[in-house]
Amino acid sequence: AWQGQVRYGLAWHGSAGDNPQMMARSHGPGGALAFLVGAPLVMPTSYAVMLAPVAAVAALGPDIDHASAWLSVRVPWLSWLVRLVTTHRHETHSALSIPIVGALAIALTIWWAPLGWSLAVGTAVALGWSVHIVQDLITDRGVVFWWPWSRRRVFLLPKRLRITTNGLAEKVLRYIMWLSFIGFEFVRYWS
Prior knowledge:
The radius of gyration is 17 Å and the shape is globular. Strands 1-2 form a two-stranded antiparallel sheet. The protein contains seven helices and two strands. By secondary structure, it is mainly alpha-helical. The chain has helices at about 25-40, 45-60, 70-75, 75-85, 95-110, 115-135, 170-190; strands spanning about 5, 10. Helix 1 runs parallel beside helix 7.
């Protein structure tokens, strides 16, 4: 229902039936949860708690190359610029994009924050971004993970086990992530 619509002066190029929330409800919590679980291994727990929202937003980042994605609807000018030079699930979903966005986050924060904090922000962004890519690798559409060296789509699961975007399996995984996130916070709070 988004095809042909114009918002903020930009035409949406999504296919009919695309959901503008396109897995944002799964990508965000996945990025935050992975960061909360993994970050305390390499940084103080207080950093992990403060930067979990950064990881959650970063987990929405790779879909900036799709006009109807959650982040694209909220930052349409950036989405438009990215879509001028990218194809959905190619450049922004590649292994190469992970260190680039992490380094960019460090470069943008180093001007106003100490080096340790900037490295923590870069870690949050890179981890959130990579969690999104892993989540897309288990879908039936996969990603062009090895761009620019290869244009073949990569899948982590055999064909029968791949999940469909906004399908039942994604919803079940989303609820498992949310329950894990709540459980993690409960244990952290009471310990």
